[in-house]
Amino acid sequence: xxxxxxxxxxxxxxxxxxxxxxxxxxxxxxxxxxxxxxxxxxxxxxxxxxxxxxxxxxxxxxxxxxxxxxxxxxxxxxxxxxxxxxxxxxxxxxxxxxxxxxxxxxxxxxxxxxxxxxxxxxxxxxxxxxxxxxxxxxxxxxxxx
Length: 145
Fold this sequence. Notes:
Strand content: 35-45%
Strand order of the largest sheet: 7-2-1-6-8
Distance between the termini: 27 Å
Helix content: under 10%
Mean pLDDT: 85
Shape: globular
CATH topology: Substrate Binding Domain Of DNAk, Chain A, domain 1
CATH architecture: Sandwich
Low-confidence stretches: none
Order of helices and strands: EEEEEEEEEEEEH
Number of helices: 1
Largest sheet: 5 strands, antiparallel
């Protein structure tokens, strides 16, 4: 017999908006749902085929958010506005993604896939549109709550 639980919150990654940058102001961000409320351990979800630019070979920050109230959002839902009651920001992750034959600072077009592992880790995979190369960003959802 196996008892299933699923994620206790919906999880989002912050992405910079496509809006033009304004000097002196931080870039606008959107929250992209990567794991909906109740996503079961051991499952993965392909995000819609939106294309993102991923910088390799240089330190990159990933901002994560969680919501205990937005239970109807699905993978790929984008939020350009939210209240403090809806989303809370979790610890960010700063990593340097391997160059894998690319130049440091190169922006690689990728699409995203998310998985919740059996041990409670949320994995975000960035998959290259060109050659299928991929990078994995891990976040411990149990520690982040």
